Amino acid sequence: MIGTLSRWAMVLLALAGAMLLSVQSAVAQDQAPKRVYVIDLNGEFGYDISQTPIRQAMRDARNNNADVVIVKIDAKWGEDGLQGETRPDTVGVFDELFRAQKILPIFADEMAREWPKQPRLVMWVKRAMGGPAFIPFVAPEIYFTEDGKMGGIGGIGTMLEGKGDEVVRQKQYSLRMARAEGFLIRGGYDPMIIRAMCQPGFLLSYRMEGGKPVFLKRAPERPDEFALTSGEKGDSMQSIVRGTTKSVLTLNADTARAINVSKGTADTVDDLIFQLGISRNYNMVEGQSKRYMENWKRDLANATREIKKAMEELGGADGGAGMSGGTYEARTQARGKRIRLLDTIINKLKTYEEAFGGRWHNENQVPGLEYFLAMREQLELQQLLDKK
Amino acid sequence: MNKLFSGFILAAALALGVCLPASDALAGDTARVTLKDGTVLEGEIVREMQGIVWLKIKSGKLEETRMISPDEMKSITRDAGATPAAKPGEDTTPAKDDKPAEPTTANPAPAPAASADTSSQPRKTGVPRAAVITLGEGGERDMVGVYMMAKPLHDAIPLLKAENVDIVVFRVNSGGGAALEVQKLSDVIYNEYRKNFRTVAWIDWAISAAAMTSHAIEELYFTPEGAYGACTAFHGDFVAAKDADLERYLFQMEKISTRGNHDPQIMRAMQIMEPLSATVSPNGDVKYYQDETSGDIVLNTKDRVLTFNSQSATQVKFSAGTASNLDELAKAMQLTEVEWVGVKKPGYMWPICKAEQMQMDFREKTARDEQLFNDYVQTLNQLLGMGANLDDERKAKVAGKARECMNKIVAAVNNNPNMALFKFNIMPDKFREEWIEPTDKKIKELTKKEKK
User: Fold this and answer.
1) What's the predicted TM-score (pTM) here?
2) Do B224 and A112 touch (CB under 8 A)?
3) Which of A317, B166, B269, B348, CA to CA, is 20 to 30 A from A46?
4) Which CATH class is domain B116-352?
């Protein structure tokens, strides 16, 4: 009997020991320095800020066992004017949502799928105007810089005015709004926030209850209620120039903090690390993120230059020479040269398709891919019918 | 001795009965089901699984199979002579009121009437097998009628049966497309899938024709960012369907709403600017109103078109739950255990079963063909136009190249019959007569030797 008891005691002791080890290991793991990886997204949204380099950076973060990933967004917002003025907040480019949709899964489904242990994802907003405004909502933690801004996505209810039938316009607004709301729901934010950001005339105010904002689809009625939008469909020129528009919601550091979208305001990485509560115990990961972003920009510039050069050669003085006269061999050689030039263009257009949108084609006067494919097909036909 | 033998045979039969899927055991039984809202439904039980009953209900010449979940059911009276032998220890006396069975995996009744060759797939005892089938994959490959079609779905059913699949989850990711495909898709889902499998939709992006397609399914789940609706029919530059055309779409969706057991007022608010409100009673029943004032929850105002997000859909129980991954989905579906069928592949959230691979291959080929289709046609037309003044050798070359183009076009249409319609304005069933045969004739004429 005693023997049995002692055996049980030993088993229990062993179990307790194992549990202790396991707790110690968990504590040790918890006490290990947090590995912080920073990704800087700057430049033109959809061109410089694009899915390929972002995906590379996130995979690099994963391979470096990052515990915390900070994504700083400072996207270009419109053209700088002669006096350095930027695009007004009310210029709504809601449809950049569909460009943002190519990037968002990297921080959502892909991260959930590809990371063995989910990192703490932190969005840090300096300028997220237009399409970039949708991205921070994918993360449960958003921080702003002091001058941070997030918005420029108005247009729901107005962007299709004068086009077709009202019911079809409403259909288009409805599906767009639902998609945008979905991103907020996923990130744990109230979808009414995005409605106020996207739909001119949507009246929204809030008051705080128990430390949480309660949103109200009406004007403030009590001293502790505050308007987020005016309920008007447009803004005065004065407010547009001063950046104080209210027809749609543009989040700045204060407003975002007030309605719990932002968890805090930080102007430097050190400030942010402090606010994240890890300043006593962290390591900055020297990853490749910056290199990926720079390489991407360089590759786009090179590809643009090579496409233009190939086009010049195609259309140049000797571009079509040798195609009709001369020997069969000379004609074949001339066609071969043109096909190689076309292949260079086709290859670059395909490789950088995600960044070479309509605007790029217009600015660089480069026709679409189909044009070059058809041109190539023509040359093949000519070759087929040529005779020695 | 004889008694001993007969006793042995009876025991063996009962044991087999336990192993048999309940759908087999109950096929042909009739039942009267009383729902919690007081509605009484009578019909033939076509399947029963994890407490869910599929009841074939006749009304005049119409017949529909309705899925009734345990949540909806107050009681069930089985009228048939045959006893539901699926659950040992259960009182199987005919014509008695049963409480709806609780979902359980202890004694599942998973398999539908499966084809004979299903034995090749090992089945874990008592664990239902589920497969994810994608309807559209977003991006450029999501258009209903091009990338989301009835034909590959129909073709996939034998593969699902061969893999012993009990539950089909349609993961929907499509921004809509051609209205002409909706009825075909709805028919395949309703007449073939729902009668063979527990069929559910997992909505990520079901807009317009994609929502109209999903509407034939009763059991809907959303991803957190899921959206469903905006079903206004239009053509050209935002010109809405009107008059008789519009009425036809509305009527079509009233009928499809019945298939999915959805209140037709929901779809109406998704198709045209109709208000919609709803009240959820304390016992969980939902009543919809085609106005903004009668219900407690305003879902749509009179100047808008309705699209549900995951919150609004759940609020009025249009969605049975929100899930961002397979584990959450299984939980929402009340599956305590489930075997997801297929091969795990990097970059995919769910295993790829053979039926899903078929859909992926179909979309891949369609994408390739779509990209090159115009090239094939343009080249073919050029070739056919240049034959007249060429010598025989060149004519032969041209004819060979033209036939190559024609074959590519035919292969593309074979893979996706709607290409005939979208690219040539020819109904798929007339494609051979109106395009293949005349083109073939033209190519032959190219190489025809002229009599001298």
Assistant:
1) 0.80
2) no
3) B348
4) alpha beta
